[in-house]
Write a structure and sequence with these properties.
479 residues, 25% strand, flavoprotein, FAD/NAD(P)-binding domain, Enolase-like, domain 1, seven-stranded mixed sheet, 30% helix, five-stranded parallel sheet, single chain, 13 helices, FAD/NAD-binding_dom, alpha/beta
């Protein structure tokens, strides 16, 4: 007789492995299915984030920034060096080692918490059963009280630029370059495109980013986006908005890309490498049996309610396969919520406070509403900003680009949004998220003591500036 579980999780990415661990912690008999294997045939845990996403891209971002600093900015600190070089294969090897350590760590956490790992491809059947097909073609059916679908997402491919292993790559391929391309094209000026473009631009590539939308970083606060566009231009990123790619042709070791600009004029440009970073799509093909009762929308996302329940009782879906931003931390929190709901505990994710981060330099991060969203909602509001150019700690670090922005309700003073471009933006926005989680007002932040000298004082000053009380900049006169 087949072994029966309380919870079977399909997928071991940040949503799936966190859900499985939390379920096991709550005393539920839990299995996690993973189809991805390494060259030795062992399960690759951690999903896109740990293997070919969040973690490896940050490793390359940090390595490339250290090189850029040494080459361009050490002299400001009085440091002199000889010719600074970059060993790209060594940089990639370091990235791979970090990935290996973390994915092995997930395996260790499964063992420590009693999660059963099952290698193979999971398919959701009717009656809350899951079929698992192993790499050798054999299969088994698991009986379970609850199924959690956490199969994640994959990069979107577009017909004008079919992937070519050597020249045209997606985000995964862009993490494996063994040398710096002289001319690099990036399709898509979103988070992935900007981060990967930044890595190779710092290392010496001439980078051109082609973005179909007319507005830069459309989901970010536009005051932040405009500052970011200026900074990236200064860094040498050539970002072309309203550029719709229509075709490509690989010739030997280069590719010619054709696109139409905002005025309808046709252009072509030659690159040594082309990264396609136009977004991601949910990985739901061949995942759900037609009679299972689980429904998808026209884009392949699984229909769920606010607590990630599908249309079938006992079947949940979390992470990139459901509505909302495709962010690892959002998926992880959904995983915790679902595990706790299955265990009979009350749980809910606060979808109003999902932080977003772009790990360029300077970092860009935000939580809550943008000024455009507040305006559209016809809410009366007030804004405080503070530039890092006036921060003593930022000056000491030679890192003064950008500013902090706090938006608050005019009547209640409750913080509606915190937006940062600058040093440690992700960490500062997290401070804002904590404050907002407790329904803080801008006055609450203004009355909080911040240590000196820190870059987080910029958040303090921006909160003070909401009511014209900033100390270290001249306050704007209120109407």
């Amino acid at each position: 007789m087949a072994e029966k579980y309380d919870v079977v999780v399909i997928g071991s990415g940040p949503a799936g492995y966190v859900c499985a661990i939390r379920a096991a912690q709550l005393g539920l008999k839990t299995a996690c299915i993973e189809k991805w294997v390494d060259e030795k045939g062992k399960a690759k845990l951690g999903g896109t984030c740990l293997n070919v996403g969040c973690i490896p891209s940050k490793a390359l971002l940090d390595s490339s920034y250290k090189y850029y600093e040494a080459k361009k900015h050490f002299d400001v600190h009085g440091i002199t060096t000889g010719e600074v070089g970059i060993d790209v294969p060594a940089m990639i090897k370091r990235k791979d080692k970090i990935v290996g350590n973390l994915t092995q760590g997930v395996g260790g956490l499964f063992k420590a918490n009693g999660v059963t790992l099952i290698q193979g491809t999971g398919t959701v059947l009717s009656g809350k059963q899951v079929n698992v097909t192993a790499a050798d073609g054999s299969s088994q059916v698991l009986d379970t009280e609850n199924v959690v679908i956490a199969t994640g997402s994959v990069p979107v491919e577009i017909p004008p630029t079919p992937l070519n292993a050597d020249i045209i790559v997606d985000s995964t391929g862009a993490l494996e370059f063994q040398q710096v391309p002289a001319r690099l094209g990036v399709i898509g000026a979103g988070v992935i495109g900007l981060e990967l473009g930044s890595v190779w631009a710092r290392l010496g590539a001439e980078v051109t980013v082609l973005e179909a939308q007319d507005r830069f970083l459309a989901t970010a606060d536009q005051q932040i986006a405009k500052d970011a566009a200026k900074i990236f231009k200064k860094q040498g990123l050539d970002i072309r908005l309203g550029a719709r790619v229509t075709g490509s042709e690989v010739n030997g070791s280069e590719v010619t890309v054709k696109y139409i600009d905002q005025n309808g004029e046709e252009h072509s440009q030659i690159f040594d490498k082309l990264i396609v970073a136009v977004g991601r799509r949910p990985l739901t093909e061949n995942l759900i049996a037609p009679d299972s009762g689980v429904n998808l929308d026209e884009r392949g996302f699984i229909f769920v309610d606010e607590q990630c329940r599908t249309d079938v009782p006992g079947v949940f879906a979390i992470g990139d396969v459901v509505r909302g931003p495709m962010l690892a931390h959002k998926g992880s929190e959904e995983g915790v919520m679902v595990a706790e709901l299955i265990a009979g505990q009350p749980a809910q994710v606060n979808y109003d406070l999902v932080p977003s981060v772009i790990y360029t330099h300077p970092e860009i991060a935000w939580v809550g509403k943008t000024e455009e969203e507040v305006k559209a909602g016809a809410e009366e509001y007030k804004v405080g900003t503070f530039p890092f150019a006036a921060s003593g700690r930022a000056m000491a670090s030679n890192d003064t680009d950008g500013f902090v922005k706090v938006i608050a309700d005019k009547k209640t003073d409750r913080i509606l949004g915190v937006h940062v471009i600058g040093p440690a933006a992700a960490e500062l926005v997290q401070q804002g998220a904590i404050a907002m989680e407790f329904a803080a007002s801008s006055e609450d932040l203004a009355l909080t003591m911040f240590s000196h000298p820190t870059v987080s004082e910029a958040l303090h000053e921006a909160a003070l500036a909401v009511d014209g009380h900033a100390i270290h900049i001249a306050n704007r006169k209120r109407k």
